[in-house]
Amino acid sequence: MKxxxxxxxxxxxxxxxxxxxxxxxLTSQDxxxxxxxxxxxxxxxxxxxxxxxRDHRVVSFDREHEIITLEHEGRTVTVPLRTARIKAGxxxxxxxxxxPGGQLEGVYASLFLGEETAFPLREGIxxxxxxxxxxxxxxxxxxxxxxKQPDGTENVVAAPAVIARPGSxxxxxxxxxxFTFHP
Length: 183
What we know:
1 helix, 7-stranded antiparallel β-sheet, N-terminal domain of TfIIb, mainly beta, 2 domains, 7% helix, SH3 type barrels, 183 residues, 5-stranded antiparallel β-sheet
């Protein structure tokens, strides 16, 4: 019977969810972070400081080291940005995004090669960006803007794919939507 309590404690600890820091999207006006529970793959969507995901509250973000601080059950936990699934598969970009009725300056975001990331620009407007590594060391960026219409339908504005050399800026502008990024 002495073993029962330690066994329950170990079982409970092993059933606890592990939270992964999946991405960030910073602008001069806003900061959002994405978390994922590794046990079931559920995503938090984009959170701001003070918001919760699975009993974890976002406390702060260390931009220089790409580490998020969370509070869980009264304890503070720091979680680094997840590593890329492929070697040299993470990129951080900065720049500007334009869209109908506005633009975002000072954008700073994490990207993972081979994975599409959806960035919320403002209510009803989302930029989807997917970088892919190429054998020559350059990167191919596929982008599309999704604009939700008043009737609930979506207007998708697909941008041409852009190839950027390592360390080079890349940009696209189609009518009112576009971006300029620097690695």
